[in-house]
């Protein structure tokens, strides 16, 4: 009787096992049947209730059923694992025929693109690039540029000071004497590109930070006519082969004579309009012959050497070139503006 019940149990357990198709129900089946508290083991407790002469055979039958269930379980476990693997392969399959999602690459800032173009223009004229620090000493930014303490010209450039008494360079002219001391005593032909900082009210034409490209030539034969030729080459590279340059008398403490550099108005071509205030000309920077005091700070004998220098504003040049009406676009990080220059 008990043997028949045991056989019926075997049939039930194997039927239940054959219906198992996933790891969770396989685990549940194992707990119900083969685990120490599972049904296959509870049979063992009933051995003592059997007639004495049947106990041995009943015990063997229980062991056989247990072994048969364990074999069937192992086979089912392998089948479920295989099925699970198949399921995951299908579920996680990558459709290699799908079109790739375009990656949006970053790009260079318009001022940096312009700086690179400008470096190309000047390098073709034999210039090399000289880098100087953004955080500068008062000496290099002002004093070496012939602006001793209390010189009124310091007010022309409202300055950001650091807590330890240094300044954020107000112009790339701060690198002139550094370049002379580093590259002298022979002739020098360098540009010094980079950011400058001024504590100015931000307007459509003025920012607190902007790029300049400084140019510096020093040597025994350098003269103002070289300056005009170089600036003409720059203007034509930036604004087209018909562009013209005008040097207009001005004042800078570090040059004598000093000039403002104008190009013919890019909007009206020189006829006069609102943008050029009806003068036909637009300013792109300052320039001049390097002051003897500055040459002296750089270690050059002013009696034997002359220098010419210029400082060009990059964002204002780009505003003229692309018809940009507000300089603040450059540092707003608005991709709708920046992406136009990719
Ligand atoms: C100077 O900075 C002189 N160091 C230039 C120079 C160099 C003269 C060598 C002689 C010899 P200025 O302050 O004018 O000069 O500035 C030069 C150019 O920088 C300007 O023409 C303008 O294009 C740009 N610039 C000046 N201030 C600002 C500002 N706040 N925002 C944007 N661009 C500016």
List descriptors.
two-stranded antiparallel sheet, 9 strands, seven-stranded mixed β-sheet, BirA Bifunctional Protein, domain 2, binds adenosine-5'-[phenylalaninyl-phosphate], 18% strand
Strand content: 15-25%
The 3D shape can be described as rod-shaped
Q: What is the string of SSEs from the N terminus onward?
A: HHHHHEEHEHEEHEEEHEHH
Span between N and C termini? 89 Å
Uncertain stretches: none
In the sheet with the most strands, the strands line up as 1-4-5-9-8-7-6
Question: Could you characterize the architecture of this molecule?
Answer:
There is one protein chain. The protein has 342 residues and is an alpha+beta fold. 40% of the residues lie in helices and 18% in strands. It has helices at residues 2-18, 23-33, 39-45, 52-91, 110-124, 138-141, 176-183, 224-239, 292-297, 314-322, 335-338, and strands spanning 128-129, 135-136, 167-168, 188-197, 209-219, 245-252, 255-264, 281-290, 306-313. The chain is rod-shaped. Adenosine-5'-[phenylalaninyl-phosphate] (FA5) binds at residues 171, 173, 198, 200, 206-207, 210, 212, 214, 252, 255, 258, 283, 285-288, 309-311, 313, 315-316, 327.
């Amino acid at each position: 009787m008990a043997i028949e019940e045991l056989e019926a149990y075997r049939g039930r357990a194997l039927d239940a096992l054959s219906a198992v198709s996933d790891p969770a129900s396989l685990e549940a089946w194992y707990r119900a049947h083969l685990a120490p508290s599972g049904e296959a083991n509870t049979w063992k407790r009933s051995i003592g209730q059997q007639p004495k002469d049947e106990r041995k055979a009943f015990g063997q039958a229980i062991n056989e059923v247990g072994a048969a269930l364990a074999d069937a379980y192992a086979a089912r476990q392998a089948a479920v694992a295989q099925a699970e693997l198949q399921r995951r392969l299908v579920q996680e399959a990558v459709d290699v025929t799908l079109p790739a999602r375009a990656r949006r690459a970053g790009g260079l800032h318009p001022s940096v693109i312009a700086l690179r173009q400008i470096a190309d223009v000047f390098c073709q004229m034999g210039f090399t690039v000289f880098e100087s620090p953004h955080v500068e000493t008062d000496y290099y930014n002002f004093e070496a540029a012939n602006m001793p303490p209390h010189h009124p010209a310091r007010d022309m450039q409202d300055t950001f000071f650091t807590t330890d008494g240094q300044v954020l360079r107000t112009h790339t002219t701060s690198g002139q004497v550094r370049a002379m001391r580093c590259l002298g005593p022979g002739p020098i032909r360098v540009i010094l590109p980079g950011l400058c900082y001024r504590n100015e009210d931000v307007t459509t034409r003025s920012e607190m930070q902007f790029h300049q490209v400084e140019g510096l030539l020093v040597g025994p034969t350098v003269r103002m006519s070289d300056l005009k030729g170089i600036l003409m080459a720059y203007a034509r590279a930036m604004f087209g082969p018909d562009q013209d340059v005008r040097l207009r008398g001005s004042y800078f403490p570090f040059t004598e004579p000093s000039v403002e550099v104008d190009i013919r108005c890019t909007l009206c071509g020189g006829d006069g309009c609102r943008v050029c205030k009806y003068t036909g000309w637009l300013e792109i920077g300052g320039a001049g012959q390097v002051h003897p005091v500055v040459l002296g700070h750089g270690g050059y004998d002013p009696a034997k050497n002359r220098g010419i220098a210029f400082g060009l504003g990059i964002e204002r040049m780009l505003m003229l070139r692309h018809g940009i009406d507000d300089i603040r676009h450059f540092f707003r990080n608005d991709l709708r503006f920046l992406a136009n220059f990719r």
